Every structure is written in C-alpha cells, then in structure tokens.
Amino acid sequence: MHTPDCAILGMGYLGKPLAEKMFENGSRISALKRQSVSANLPVNLHTADLNHPRVFEADFWQTWADKPLWFCLLPPSAVADYPALLAGWLQLARNFGIKHIVYAGSTSVYGDAARPCSEHTAPDPQTESACKIYRVEKLLRESGIPNIDILRLGGLYCAKRHPLHSLLKCSNLTGAHRPVNMLHRNRAVAALHRAAVTPAGLRIRNIVEAQHPTQYNFYRTEAAKLGLPEPAFNLGDQSGGKTVYTVYGDFADLLL
C-alpha cells in the first residue's frame, strides 16, 4: 500500500513514532510542535504558539500545502480553545484542497457509565476534555473533506510512559474491578498508519485492545513486567465501567 506524504499536528508521544513509521514507508513529512524538539528524522519541523490569533497566517503552513494527508494528534490540553483551533486548521485544509485527515480522538467521548460501547453507541461525553473532543468530531464530520478518519483511542501506555507511575502515587484506588480499555502506543501508531494508507470516506473506529482485564489484574501484570510495586487498589470497591470494542474488522487484527 502506498504511504502518502503527510503533515502532523502534534509531534509528541504519538507524533514522533508515527513520523518514523511514515518516513520508513516513503512519506515526506511536515510537522508542527508547540515547543522545540530534536527529531533525528528528515522532517520539515516547525514550532508555533497555537494560541496566537494569527497562527494560521504563518509562512510555514505552505510546507503543508502539498501534503495530501494531515494528522491531528493534538490533545485538548494543548491550547486554550481546542475546537476553535481545529476549526481554523480544518479551514486551512479546505483552502489547500486536502483530501484526507486522520484524527486521534478518545474513547472518553462515551462517558463513564457501565455499558458496552461500540461505534454504534451514542457518545455521552462528561468531562470538559471529552466534550471538546466530541465537538471536534462534529467539525470533522461536517468539514466536507472527502476522507475523514476519527480513531477513538483507548488509554495509551508503553514502558517509557505508563499510567502505572501515576497510580503508584495514590492509595485506596477505586475501580479495581472495572474493565480497562487500553492501547499500547505501538498499536496506536499501527492503526494511524493503516488509516493513512486506506482512505475510505468518513470512518469512525474504536481502537482499543481486544482484551479487557480488570484494572487490578491489568496493572498488577504491568507492574511485574516493569519491576514496580503493585498499585494499592481497594478490592472492596465493586463499581463497574464501560467496555469499548469495535464491530468492524478493518483494524481488529491490530488489537489482538
């Protein structure tokens, strides 16, 4: 499959390994990061204050004009007004005639209610961050750009950056028996790349590992792998949580 030239908004936790994968498969890459970063890749990398009201008038965007595929990996916490920034970014994409956008969203749009959640489940965003992500999903769906991929990613983890470290700072943790909806960073990058090389109109997919152990079992297993203590869960807490899965087969093999 042909890997197109691309532009990446957000060169952090997912952006750097994604750029590596795209480059290894023949893509020319432009990228934007909020702060300076070293990247041992031939990437046309710029930094910018995304909160600046005239950010989209900057000259460096011209290096994005000939990239038919754009990624958005930027989290809501990155800017003051996330939906407004992405609205401006999408307008720029339309002005350049971009044909394909891949957006790294989140399963947080389903809320916290204990229920199974597929792509056919109505979202119920409850946090400020989830509400902003869902508003951007709406902007993407209504953008008129021919190919839109909205990938609702599970909770990201890898050995270098693991949520276990935060849990170890707490005691009497709730949710011991809730199912996890996790996604290793390598699987996330593989899914982003697959979306990039298989444009298919409007596509919304849950990208979550197929197995859903309880939080207690998941984190004690991860602690053993990393040589860290087990987190202190309150095993008496019987509260439940959502289980996110995909009903489609186009990414399922990456999630086993």
UniProtKB/TrEMBL annotation:
Per its UniProt entry, which superkingdom is the organism in?
Bacteria
Question: Which SUPFAM superfamilies does this chain map to?
Answer: NAD(P)-binding Rossmann-fold domains
Record's InterPro entries?
NAD(P)-bd_dom_sf
Name under which the protein is recorded = NADH(P)-binding family protein
Species the sequence originates in = Neisseria musculi
